[in-house]
Specification:
It is a single chain. The protein has 13 helices and 14 strands. With 387 residues, the chain is an alpha/beta fold. It has two domains: 301 residues, Rossmann fold; 60 residues, Alpha-Beta Plaits (2-Layer Sandwich). It has an eight-stranded mixed beta sheet with strand order 4-3-2-7-12-13-1-14, sandwiched between helices. The protein binds iron/sulfur cluster. Iron/sulfur cluster binds next to loops.
Length: 387
């Protein structure tokens, strides 16, 4: 059965506030029956507050509307994010005063308050969920859509997958790319050739392995799978395999399933704001130029459906190539624009495949536009031609 995804387009017809995104967010919250569902609940509103001088995270104007809706419904909201992002969040406009409720680090001020949930995946045995997430009874997952160097795209899943786990688990998740071996030194005993392989990468993705003499370490984030390195590497010595790349997405799906398992069914809603869509995630502490046009705001009870809808809508646009950082390249013209930029093995749709396979929702959805943009001719202003 198709899940419902409520949608607000960034376009407007009239010059009126009621046709803009904050007002459309209000309509989405109403359609999701948020007020009716949060009475007496302790509501964690999971945001990414960014850090340093980033300004593309969700504007307080949007956050405040969610907070007020929760309060109107009789819920007890708090904003939460990783401790290194809540620290100094006031420098980016996020305070209890501007948002209307307290801001708490997900795992306490020292990132140690967590609950371990056992699940085996590529060397990870326990997933440590932030205690403030675990202790809440209702979740509003409010994510910003943007590109991501590890998996092409970051949205609703990524906001939970990495944003609700403590540092130890997040590090382990980033390491799963390396779980399956990709460098086979016995196939390249020649030091000179190994140096040429490293030098062949124009993005600095290949480096000496500091833990293994004669080894090569691949930084998966800057690698766009251009395969220049394989033109230099002796056959079989270096593998640029999809499985290594997909592992991070699968880990994100598992992490999200773990976090959502701490909430009763129907006690979570997922919102995604797709504006200021930058090439990289908001963790970097800066904001780059947008690489896609604004796509709007989305809301659903189904995290898989909302991700699928965001990807389908953003996938209808072309990359704004003049806005891409000059140290990145578009080397393929097929697939989703995020994959065109970050490489085919960072296909953003993998995340919806993995999360659906884990039973978190459905990739089938019905998109319900909460305020379709009217098309009408501008009325005459009544000017009289001078001729
Ligand atoms: S595939 Fe391209 S980007 Fe990736 S390591 Fe090789 S040369 Fe670098």
């Amino acid at each position: 059965m198709a899940s419902i995804v409520y949608y607000g387009s960034p376009r407007q017809a009239r010059w009126e506030a009621k046709e803009t995104l904050p007002a459309k967010l209000d309509q989405i919250l109403t359609r999701l029956n948020l007020r009716e569902r949060v009475k007496g609940e302790t509501v964690a509103i999971k945001l990414h507050l960014g850090n340093n001088m980033g300004y593309s995270t969700i504007h307080p104007v949007f956050v405040r509307r969610v907070v007020e809706a929760v309060k109107e419904g009789g819920g007890h909201p708090f904003i939460t994010d990783l401790s290194w992002d809540t620290r100094a969040s006031e420098t980016r406009g996020y305070t209890a005063e501007t948002l209307g409720c307290p801001i708490y680090p997900t795992a306490g001020i020292n990132d140690r308050y967590s609950y371990a949930i056992e699940r085996l995946y590529k060397g990870i045995t326990h997933w440590k969920v932030g205690g403030m997430i675990h202790d809440a009874s209702f979740l509003v997952n409010f994510a910003h859509a943007k590109g991501h160097p590890s998996c092409g795209y970051g949205g609703a899943v990524k906001n939970l997958a990495l944003g609700c786990m403590i540092t130890e688990t997040r590090r382990a998740m980033h390491d799963v790319n390396h779980y399956n071996p990709y460098w086979f030194p016995e196939k390249c005993p020649d030091e000179e050739t190994r140096r040429k392989i490293i030098a062949a990468c124009p993005f600095g993705a290949l480096v000496e392995d500091k833990n293994q003499a004669g080894g090569i370490h691949l930084h998966y984030e800057p690698c766009n799978q251009c395969l220049r390195c394989l033109k230099v590497a002796p056959p079989g010595s270096l593998k640029i395999n999809p499985e290594n790349f997909y592992a991070f997405q699968e880990a994100c799906a598992i992490s999200t399933a773990v976090t959502l398992s701490t909430f009763e069914p129907d006690k979570a809603v997922h919102l995604v704001l797709a504006t200021q869509i930058t090439p990289l995630c908001d963790c970097f502490g800066f904001t780059s130029m947008p690489i896609l046009p604004d796509a709007g705001i989305f809301g659903s009870d189904d995290i898989v459906a909302v991700e699928q809808a965001v990807l389908d809508v953003t996938g209808q646009s072309k990359l704004i190539e003049e806005n891409i950082p000059t140290t990145m390249e578009v080397h393929c013209r097929e697939g989703h624009p995020f994959a065109q930029l970050h490489g085919p093995y960072k296909d953003p749709y993998k995340i919806t495949e993995y999360t659906e396979a884990l039973g978190l929702g459905s990739r089938k959805y019905e998109l319900v536009d909460v305020l379709p943009v009217e098309k009408f001719a501008r009325p005459s202003l009544g000017y009289v031609s001078a001729s």
